[in-house]
Amino acid sequence: MSRPGWVPRPGALARGLVPLLATLLGGCIDFLDPQLPPPSAAVAQFFIHMSRGQVQLEGQVQPGMSLAHEWRTFPNDSLLVEGQPVAPLTVHANGARDYSVTLPLPTLVGPVTVQVPIVAGIPDRPGELRWYGVRRLDPDTLVLAVGADLHLHLDTSAPPQTPPPTGAQWFLQLAAGGHMFQLGADGLPPADMRVPPEFIPGDSTSVVNATLLLLHSGQANIAGGGYLLNVSFDQTLTWTVVRPRKGTTP
Amino acid sequence: MRKDRCRGGAGARTAERGRRARLLLLPALVLLGWLQPLPAAGQAPSSFVPDTGAVIATAPHWAGEFAVFSGNALLSGVTAGLVQKLRGGSFRDGFTRGVVGGGVVYAGKRFAAERFDGAGLLGREVASVGTSMVRNASEGAGLLERLTLPVGIARVYLDRGGPRPVRLRLDAWATAWTLYGISQTQLDFDARASLSAGTPVFRTRNKVLSAGDIKAGGYAKAGVVLLSDVPAWGPVYATRALHHELEHVLQEDQILGMWLRPLQSALLPRLPGGRALDDWLDLNPSTEVLDGLSNLVRDHDVRPWELEADYLAKRR
Fold this sequence. Notes:
The complex is a heterodimer.
Chain A: H1 10-15, H2 17-26, E1 30-32, E2 42-51, E3 54-62, E4 79-81, E5 84-86, E6 90-91, E7 97-104, E8 112-115, E9 129-131, E10 135-136, E11 141-143, E12 150-155, E13 166-176, E14 179-186, E15 192-195, E16 207-221, E17 227-242
Parallel strand pairs in A: 2-17, 11-17
Antiparallel strand pairs in A: 2-3, 3-7, 4-5, 4-8, 6-7, 8-9, 10-12, 12-15, 13-14, 13-16, 16-17
Chain B: H1 2-6, H2 10-23, H3 25-34, H4 52-58, H5 61-86, H6 91-113, H7 119-138, E1 146-151, E2 154-159, E3 166-171, H8 172-183, E4 187-189, H9 191-197, E5 201-204, E6 208-211, E7 214-216, E8 218-221, E9 224-227, H10 235-267, H11 274-280, E10 281-282, H12 286-294, H13 304-314
Parallel strand pairs in B: 3-10, 5-9
Antiparallel strand pairs in B: 1-2, 2-3, 4-5, 6-7, 8-9
Helix pairs in contact in B: 3-12, 5-6, 5-7, 6-7, 6-10, 7-10, 10-12, 10-13
C-alpha cells in the first residue's frame, strides 16, 4: 500500500530497483574477440577490342568489401581511357561500376591506355595499362598470282607494355565462296604468314577475305592483393586478296 | 488527471473509466503484435529476399529525406489523432497537430545525423520538443503547453498550466543501463561522446558486443549507447555506428513520449506506491517495445526503424 506523502528517495532507488534492473538487463550481453575476415580485393575486369584505329572498352570495376564489411567507395569513379575520363554507365548496389566506351586511337596500333580509379581505403592502384596492337605491313588489298603462295606481313614488335601481355594466341581465317580455311597457334603470329595455294579456298572465286584475330590477356595487382586488374584484349586485322581467274593475267 | 478523477459523480467516473479503457486499446494492440508467436522451424519464411537496403542506398537523396519525414509525420499524426479521438476529442485536430510534431521529430533526427560536436544533444532536444507536441496533440493541450526535455538519463517535464511547472524524472531503465556500463569492466565511459550525444556513451576495447548469436556494432538501450569499438573497422564505420545508435536513442525517446509515458501515467498511479514512482521515475521499456516489434519484422535490414537509422547515419 502506498503511504500518503511517501516519496522514494533517490538513494533508496539506487540501492534497490536500479541495481536489480542493471543485473537483469545487462546479463544478456557478451563481449567477443573480433574475428575479422580478410577484406575482399577491388577488382577491375575489362575487355578491349582494337580494330580499324579504334578501341572499344567494356568492363566493370568492383570496389570490394572493407574490413568493416562495407562496400568501398570511389573518390572519383571515372575511368581514364586514352587519357579521357569515362563516367560509369551503371552503378550497382555493391558499388560496382559498369563502363563502355569507343574511342579513336592515336595510331592504328595504339597504344591503348587505361587507368583504373582510386578506391577509398586501398592505398594504391594498379599502374596504367599500356598495350599495343600488331601492325599490318601490307596494303588493304593484295593481288595474288595464280599458283603463288599468299604472304601476309606483320610488324609484331612493340615498345614495353604494362602489364606484360600473357597467353597470346592468333587465328587466321581465309574465306571465299562459302568455303573457309583456318590456321592458328599460341604466341604471336610470324612476321610473314605464308599460306600455300592449295589451302586458299574457293578456286572459282576472285576475292578472298583474310582475317587475323589476335588475343592476349594480362593481369596486374598491387602489393598485398588489394586491387586486381584483369584485362582481355583482341585485335582484328583484315586483308582483301584479289585472285585473278585462271586464264587471265594479273 | 487526479483532479479530474475527484470531480463529478458516478456517471462521470463511469465515463472516465470508459475513456481509460479505450486509451488502453492502442497499446494493447501494439502488445498483441509484440506477442505474436515466432514462426516455428517448419514455418520457414518466404525465400523472397527484399533488397530495400540496396534501394535505399541508391535512391535519390530527396526520396530518402521525404520517406523519413513522411514516416515520422504519419506515425505522429495517426497516434495523436487516434488518442485524441479515444479521449473524446477530434481525430482531425489530433492528426493535424501530430503531423506538425512529427515534422519537428524528423528535424531533430536530421540534426542528430550531422557530424558537428553537440549534434546528438541538439537533435535529441529538438526531437523531444516534437514528441511533446505529439503528446500535447493527443491530449488536446496547446501545442507547446507541456514539454519534455531529456537531460542525460533524466527528463525535465515543463508544464506551463500545471500545479508543478517543472518536474525532474529519472529514467529507471537508462539509469540501470548506465550503472551496468559503469560496473562492466569491458566497457569504458566516453565522456566527450556522451556530452556531444546528450546521453551516456560506453565503448568496448576492441571487443564485439553480442547478444546470443547476433553480433552488433552497437546497441541503444533505453537511450544509453553501447558501442563495439574495434579499431580495425576504421573511423568512418565508428562514426557511423555512433550516429546509427543515436538515431535509435531518438526513436526510443519518441516511443516513450508518444506511447509509454501516457500509458505509465494512466496505469502506474493505480498500483500501491505507484503514484510516487510515477512522480519521480520514467519506466522506459522502449528498447523492449522495439525488440517486440522486431518479432513482426524478422529481417533486421528491412525494419523501418533500422532503415531510418541506417539512412540518416549514412547520408549527410
